[in-house]
Design goal:
heterodimer, A: Rossmann fold, Rossmann fold, 5-stranded mixed beta sheet, B: alpha/beta, 12% strand
């Protein structure tokens, strides 16, 4: 069942937060497979920086809920080694900002070992990390680098943006024989909504249409999904039907679902919290130009983070990040194109 | 694993160690020629002078133990029992190479030998060894992980992070530091405020000792004792192998940073010459034995060269394979 079907199917049990859904995903994985264990900074006694892993230490003990020192390179590398050794580790890097301290392990080992060894040594590792800005944490704690990671062959990049994906994408990631980086936007943890009780065989390769529409498509992922859905509500009130496409998986990109939306709507706005230059939004735009150029009724428009280290004051941070009003402005721009004055 | 680590030096043990070191020496000598002929390209790092560490250590490790190595790993790979044909074909970049030619000299892998490669980022293998050891511990295995690295890695953060984790979690890992005194061209004393490397390991509460890495018997015995201790739950052990690289760092090194007399002095302490002298003095070996072992090693190398020469290149149509795991055939 793909995510689109899953979103409308499945039995709804109760309302949960994204945080609770992510926790339940980890709990279910630990119960289902003795090879699975979780390690990272403050995942145990502290309960996780974003409280995702709260209570898991009591349930599973310190061998499987493993607090680490502040040694990102060593514990990410240890995750790689443990995966090679037959385990199914979930490594939590507190935030994407600290993943830079483990970049050598992620790029030079996790992403390359399979190829460099001629296919002998795959790395079935899941690395979870929080990403994104919006809490006035200033430049060093506000990065959105998932687009960077999506540049790297050998990695799979996923960004669950819904309650159901927070709950079900992890098991698909753990079943994957390759290293999967799973990005959770910090603004999603408190998101509340219904959770489907059971979704059989969720995929981590397909994008999902979260809201159908015929006039324009907003292509996005992660924390920006909900900004796009808000913008689409405003547009609907004005008689504009915006489709909202949630990429879900940033590598590999689901070209087919993207181009299907382009062919339905002919106008595209890409919304991405990464910086504009060399961004994932740039990659998506290029693919649309390469594969569906003649379907376009207007140039593709991008809404990205301003080309500045994210500043601390609220008004500047807000101005730097994608928000519904910037998205609406971009939609007006692509809708206006080609219309007679 | 060979069980003669603690026994007296016999003819059989001596010749067998000598043979293994000569295989590595002859293999690498031939690689230098092949590099000149442009058959081998890229970086080529020789362990010439350091053969005792590879051979002595591998003989004291079990076949189910995991090995993590560096970019100077031809000796480790051959001593571990990887087929010489596959290692030579990897040097050529041929499809029959141990990594299907994708890795080359610096990235020799063999999952069947639990040989987790050839890592070309200094210090980059250390965290991986921690994870392999963690898996062994979580799975209640009696196996251990041996991690090779050079003195240059000691300056890397990954060294310190890894030693700390190994000790903190009491992991079954054997750190084997090949201290050849130079990180490329930078002498240890020019890079480290504390040049006693074993002392650094003790700072992490890891049992550590410095071993004469030119003495294959000493290496074999020390690794056996360390491996036994680790295998029985004693936590990590650190062995600093004091050794020397006779040849250049790589094929692009003019060796401006060290004096020829220093190299000559170390060559007199070379692992092959000292073992040969010792065996002859004890009447356990004659010159003709040495000649025979060298002849056999060279013949094996020539057969490996012929194998690599006649092996096929990977078709370009396979370029993008092995980036992700492929379903079992």
């Amino acid at each position: 069942m793909n995510a689109e079907a899953a979103a409308s199917g499945g039995t709804v049990t109760n309302r949960v937060t994204y945080r609770e859904a992510a926790r339940e995903a980890i709990r279910a994985a630990l119960r289902a497979d003795p090879r699975v264990f979780l390690m990272g900074e403050d995942v145990g006694r502290y309960g996780g920086c974003y409280a995702v892993t709260k209570g898991l230490l009591d349930e599973f003990g310190p061998e499987r809920i493993r607090d680490t020192p502040l040694s990102e390179s060593a514990f990410v590398g240890a995750g790689i080694g443990a995966a090679l050794g037959g385990m199914r580790p979930i490594v939590e890097i507190m935030t994407v900002n600290f993943s830079l301290l483990a970049l050598d392990q992620i790029l030079n080992n996790a992403a390359t070992l399979c190829h460099m060894s001629g296919g002998q040594m795959n790395v079935p590792l899941v690395i979870r990390m929080a990403t994104g800005a919006g809490r006035q944490l200033a430049a060093q704690h506000s990065h959105s680098l998932e687009g960077w990671y999506a540049h790297i062959p050998g990695l799979r990049i996923v960004a669950p943006a819904t309650i159901d994906d927070a709950r079900w994408m992890l098991s698909a990631a753990l079943a994957c024989p390759d290293p999967v980086l799973l990005f959770e936007h910090i603004f999603l943890y408190n998101l509340e909504g219904p959770l489907a009780a059971e979704i059989g065989g969720i995929d981590i390769d397909r994008a999902a249409v979260r809201r159908p529409g015929r006039d324009v498509v907003l292509i996005t992922y992660g924390g920006s999904l909900h900004k796009c859905l808000t913008a689409a509500e405003h547009l609907a009130a004005q008689g504009v039907e915006a489709e909202v496409l949630d990429l879900r998986t940033l590598r590999p990109l689901d070209d087919q679902t993207i181009m299907d939306s382009v062919r339905r709507t002919h106008r595209v706005v890409v919304v991405d919290e990464g910086w504009r230059s060399g961004s994932l939004a740039a990659e998506i735009t290029t693919r649309i130009v390469e594969q569906a150029f003649y379907e376009l009724d207007a140039p593709v428009c991008r809404v990205c983070t301003a080309e500045v280290p994210v500043p601390y004051p609220q008004h500047l941070e807000e101005a730097a990040l994608p928000n519904p009003s910037r998205i609406l402005a971009a939609v007006r721009q692509v809708l206006a194109h080609g219309e007679s004055p | 694993m060979n069980d003669d680590a603690d026994s007296a030096l016999t003819r059989e043990r001596g010749l067998s160690l000598l043979r293994d070191m000569l295989r590595v020496r002859c293999f690498e000598d031939r690689c230098v020629q092949l590099y000149g002929e442009l058959k081998i390209r890229g970086f080529l790092h020789l362990c010439n002078g350091e053969e005792a560490v590879a051979v002595g250590a591998m003989r004291s490790l079990g076949e189910d133990d995991a090995i993590v190595s560096t970019y100077r790993e031809h000796g480790h790979a051959l001593a571990r029992g990887l087929p010489m044909n596959a290692v030579m074909a990897e040097m050529y970049g041929k499809q029959t190479g141990s990594s299907r030619g994708r890795g080359g000299s610096m990235h020799i892998f063999d999952i069947s030998k639990r040989f987790y490669g050839g890592n070309a980022i200094v210090g980059g293998g250390l965290p991986v060894s921690i994870g392999l050891a963690l898996a062994q511990k979580l799975q209640r295995q009696s196996t251990i992980t041996a991690c090779f690295f050079g003195d240059g890695a000691v300056a890397e953060g990954e060294f310190h992070e890894s030693l700390n984790l190994a000790a903190l979690w009491s992991l079954p890992v054997l750190f084997l530091c090949e201290n050849n005194l130079y990180a490329m061209g930078t002498a240890l004393a020019r890079a480290e405020s504390e040049i006693d490397i074993a002392a650094k390991a003790r700072g992490y509460r890891i049992d550590a000792a410095a071993i004469d890495g030119m003495d294959v018997l000493a290496v074999q015995t020390a690794v056996r004792a360390a491996a036994d201790r680790i295998r029985h739950g004693g936590g990590p052990v650190f062995l600093e192998m004091r050794t020397y690289r006779f040849r250049a760092h790589s094929m692009f090194d003019a060796q401006l940073y060290r004096d020829k007399t220093e190299t000559e002095a170390w060559q007199k302490k070379g692992p092959i010459i000292t073992l040969t002298t010792r065996l002859k003095a004890a009447n356990l070996m004659k010159e003709e034995d040495y000649q025979r072992l060298e002849r056999e090693a060279r013949a094996e190398v020539e057969a490996a060269v012929a194998f690599a020469e006649r092996s096929d290149w990977e078709p370009v149509s396979n370029l993008e394979r092995y980036v992700y795991a492929e379903p079992a055939q």
